[in-house]
Amino acid sequence: MNDFDFEGGLRRLDEITQQIEGGDTPLAQSLELYKEGIAVATDCAAVLNGIEAEIMILQQGEGGIVLAPFKGD
């Protein structure tokens, strides 16, 4: 998974979506694109899950170091 390019995956998902939504793609090819999109989306989700795990910040608490979830804006 370290080789996966998240931003490239997002770009590919956008391309796939545009092709399928364009309406000019034959059904069989749309199905193949859809399968590819699911695979890319799964890889993107795995990256995000890994990042979420990393964002569990080590904070100094009263009882020592504790894990606390990141609270973004």
The class by helix and strand makeup works out as alpha+beta
The radius of gyration computed from the alpha-carbon positions, rounded to a whole number of angstroms, is: 18 Å
Tally of strands: 2
How far do the termini sit from each other? 28 Å
**pLDDT below 50 for ≥5 consecutive residues: which ranges?**
none
As laid out across the biggest beta sheet, the strand order is 1-2
Order of helices and strands: HHEE
Name the shape in a single word: rod-shaped
Provide the residue-averaged pLDDT: 84
Helix content: 55-70%
What is the strand content? 5-15%
Biggest sheet: strands, sense, closure?
2 strands, antiparallel
Give a written overview of the molecule:
With 73 residues, this protein is α+β, with helices and mostly antiparallel strands. The protein contains two helices and two strands, in the order ααββ. A hairpin with a 2-residue loop joins strand 1 and strand 2. The longest helix has 28 residues. The radius of gyration is 18 Å and the shape is rod-shaped. The model has no long low-confidence stretch (mean pLDDT 84).
Q: Secondary-structure map with pairings?
A:
Elements lengths: L5 H17 L4 H28 L2 E5 L2 E5 L5
Antiparallel strand pairs: 1-2
Features:
2 strands; alpha+beta; 73 residues; two-stranded antiparallel ribbon; 2 helices
How would you summarize this macromolecular structure in one to three sentences?
The chain has 73 residues and is an alpha+beta fold. 62% of the residues lie in helices and 14% in strands.
